[in-house]
Amino acid sequence: MKILILILFILINSCKNDKKEDLDSIDLEVVNKLILPNHNLWIFNRLSFDENFSDKERLGAFKVTRTSLEETAYALVPETPIIYGSKYRISIEVKKGDLGYLFGLRVVSEYPNRIDAVFDLKSGCIVDNKSSGNFIEGKASIAQLNNGWYKCSIISELDSNMVRVIFGPTSGLGKAITWEASTKDFCDNYIIPSSLTIEELKIKL
Known about the structure:
By secondary structure, this protein is mostly beta strands. It has one domain: Galactose-binding domain-like (Jelly Rolls, Sandwich). 6% of the residues lie in helices and 48% in strands. The chain has one helix at 2-13, and strands at 28-33, 43-45, 47-52, 61-66, 74-81, 86-96, 102-108, 114-120, 125-132, 139-144, 149-158, 162-170, 188-191, 197-203. The model is unreliable at 2-12 and 17-25 (pLDDT under 50).
């Protein structure tokens, strides 16, 4: 009985996509790539943002580190206009930091319309994925690149005229809807700001 309970616990707490689902493999065509605000205009709420030169294969990498355990911590990209009802892919290249290995990504418009995902940058899988409001079919994707880097994405039909992107390092239980909340431990990630993209998609005929 104890063995059965242990097995169930492991299954429940394992990554939700052990097969490392890659939505980039779906036959989608990019019809428009949106222009996003430069990272100098991003808002870093209780996060430090330091340029990192240690990874020669990924020039332009920055280290994002949580500076508070008690309060929310995240990076906010100002709102970007989109076409209501279109399908979009929001992606960014991320690598596990020195403290922890979880990364949170959120796409949000008017409350409560949002999609959240937490990615495991050590195992290369999705820990949790949650859609709310009108964003009912948001899907997360993680694709392995090289040297420990991953492309983390959210794909969804967005019933809104604008979206904001929120992201940051997280730890603890890795729950999607609260990834930016207080944590037990300090944590960090490496990101490529220029890799953040919002792409309008359509299914190839």
